[in-house]
Amino acid sequence: MLRELTHFFRHAPATLRLKRTLPQAELYDHVCGAGDDAGLAAWRAQLVGDLAGDILEVGAGTGLMFRHYGAAARVTALEPDAAFAALAAPRAAAATAVHIDIIAGTAEALPGPSRSRDGAVVGLVLCSVADPAAALAELARVLRPGAPLRLVEHVRSPRLVAGTLMRATNPLWRALNGQGCNMHRDPLPAIRDAGFTIDRTEPFQIFAPGIPAFPMRAIWARAAG
Ligand SMILES: C[S@@+](CC[C@H](N)C(=O)[O-])C[C@H]1O[C@@H](n2cnc3c(N)ncnc32)[C@H](O)[C@@H]1O
């Protein structure tokens, strides 16, 4: 925990300075891009590179996932924030191996009929949706039986002291990040409660300038049926 706290206090002042000069979407793109360079991109590639068919990405942000899809995927990328979507657009155009449509929408009301999608992707989104159970229920609705759901999320530490500290300081973190991001959630029980089978989870951590070194999980799940 000492390493995580040292990392946070070392980088927080520069990030707060950047926050005063960059709009939220650009700040996110900058710091998360550093996270990608520090190892997150490799997890993204593992999670989505094998997906095929009609794939729904929820909360696509600035499109940092796009370059990792393979040619067998056709991606509908849902993003509610126009400023994030504007940064994602050139990345969608640059991902020539795969067709990507960006549309406005939220996790709680997904587009398309029930059992219509061949797969879904959720990257660093369940931390900030107002109702993760509602979002997961929608994902369970739109996915075909047995279809893959791939997630990468930061989670509350399973360690007692670190987990308690994360719960206690979550209101301060929410005020600082300005994106509605919570650091005290554990999405795994909610994913199971929504009827998904979790086939694999991989814990990892990213130490990159500008982002806290939260415990992370790459998650391979599939819809019931
Ligand atoms: C931390 S960013 C992650 C962006 C991207 N998925 C990535 O992996 O870099 C969270 C994104 O979720 C979006 N978001 C927040 N609430 C949402 C909701 N209820 N439904 C869909 N997207 C949401 C935000 O607009 C933002 O683009």
Task: State the share of residues found in helices, binned by percent.
Answer: 40-55%
The protein's oligomeric status is single chain
CATH class wording = Alpha Beta
Computed over alpha carbons, the radius of gyration is: 17 Å
Overall, the morphology is: globular
What do these coordinates show?
- With 225 residues, this protein is α/β, with parallel strands linked by helices.
- The protein has a single domain, classed as Vaccinia Virus protein VP39 (Rossmann fold, 3-Layer(aba) Sandwich).
- The protein is 42% helix and 20% strand.
- It is built from six helices and seven strands, in the order H-H-E-E-H-E-E-H-E-H-H-E-E.
- Helix 3 links the parallel strand 2 (73-78) and strand 3 (99-103).
- The longest helix has 25 residues, at 24-48.
- The structure holds S-adenosylmethionine.
- S-adenosylmethionine is lined by residues 32, 58-61, 64-65, 79-81, 84, 106-108, 123-125, 128-129.
Question: Can you lay out the helices and strands and say which pair or pack?
Answer:
Elements: H1 2-21, H2 24-48, E1 53-58, E2 73-78, H3 82-94, E3 99-103, E4 119-123, H4 132-142, E5 148-154, H5 160-177, H6 187-193, E6 197-205, E7 215-222
Parallel strand pairs: 1-2, 1-4, 2-3, 4-5
Antiparallel strand pairs: 5-7, 6-7
The structure holds S-adenosylmethionine.
S-adenosylmethionine binds next to loops.
